[in-house]
Amino acid sequence: MERRSILFFLIFLSFLQVHAKTKRFGTWIEAEFSKDIFKKLEFTLSPEVRLQDDFTVDEYIVDGKLTFKPADFLRLSAAYRYLIDVKKNDNEQFHRFAFDALGKKEWNRLEGSLRVRFTNYPEFEANNNKNEYLRYRLKFEYNLKNCKLRPFVSYELFHLLAEKELNKSRFDLGGSYKVSGNSRLGVFYRLQSYFDGDDSIHILGISYELEF
Fold first, then answer.
1. pLDDT in tens, 1-33
2. CATH code, domain with 123
3. Start-to-end C-alpha separation, the chain
4. pLDDT in tens, 122-144
5. Domain count, the chain
6. Measuring CA to CA, which residue among 106, 175, 103 is closest to residue 138?
7. In terms of residue numbers, what domain contains 164?
8. pTM to 2 decimals?
C-alpha cells in the first residue's frame, strides 16, 4: 500500500511540473518550524519563497505565529507577516497580520477542520495594498493505514470586507509524507480562482514541516 501511495505521489508531482510552464503559474516553497513554549501555547516560524511562472522570485515571506490550544478541538492564533515584494524594482516591504480560529474533528482516520481567518493582506495580487479579508477554509486529511503518506483536500473563500463580497476562492489538493517522527515533506496543487473573471492562477507548492 505504501509503495503504491508513494508512486502516486511522485506521478502527481511530475504532472504539476509539466504544467509549470503555463502563463498563469506560480511555485511556492515553504517551511514551517513549530515548538511548544508552554503546554497550550505554540510558536511557529514559517519562511517562504514564491516564484513566478518563469521561476524568477516574486516574493519573500516570513511569518511568526503564536497558537493557543484551549481544547483538543480548538486553535486560536495570531500571526505577523513580513513580506518583500520583488515584482517592483525597489523591492517594496510590507507588514501584515492575521488572526485565526480553527476547529477540528476526527472520524476514525479522517480529520476535518474549519478555519476562519481575519487578515489585512491579499494573496498573490498585482499589488499589495491593504485589504481586510475574512477567509473561510474547509479542509479534510486522511490518515492512510500503514502508510506515511497523508493526503488532503481543502477549499477556501476570500471575503473582501470593504466591498462586502466574496471575490476569490482557493482549491488545494496534495499530501505530506512523514520523513521522521517529527518532520513531514509535502507537495500540493493550488487553483486560485477569481469571481470577477480574471484568469485563474495554478500553483505548485512544496512544503517542509518540523516540530521541535
1. 555 555 555 555 555 444 444 447 899 999 999
2. 2.40.160
3. 29
4. 665 555 566 899 999 999 999 99
5. 1
6. 103
7. 2-211
8. 0.85
